[in-house]
Amino acid sequence: MEKEQHEQYEYARKRLVQKKHLNYHFVVCVLGCLFAYVANHFFQMGAPYQWYKWLICIWLFVFILHFFKVHISDRFMNKNWERQQIDRLIAKQQNRLRELETKYGNDNPPA
């Protein structure tokens, strides 16, 4: 397998694992929220308070963050993006070094 094909395979595998974990997180979230609701309403756990609403809000917030990471930020900020940013910064640094060399010359004072 060529290097480019191998990188594509690794990227696809990584995305698949991320999506699998997101689906697992969704199922656990739904079951956990359902359990919290049943425990609070039917088993009277923490009866005077409706604590399950807070748990559901927090869990959904964490799930939304996970969803954002998998489907939005990781899609755009992947290895290719990192490589492009590194190349851009290296080119910028090399241009700055060339400017300094032309401005001050390559003369090193003798020690």
Summarize the structure.
By secondary structure, this protein is an all-alpha fold. It has helices at residues 3-41, 52-76, 79-104. It is elongated, with a radius of gyration of 26 Å.
Structure description:
The protein is mostly helical and 111 residues long. It has a domain at 3-75. It contains 3 helices and no strands. The protein has helices spanning 3-41, 52-76, 79-104. Helix 1 (3-41) packs antiparallel against helix 2. The longest helix is centred in the N-terminal third of the chain and has 39 residues, at 3-41. The radius of gyration is 26 Å and the shape is elongated. The mean pLDDT is 88.
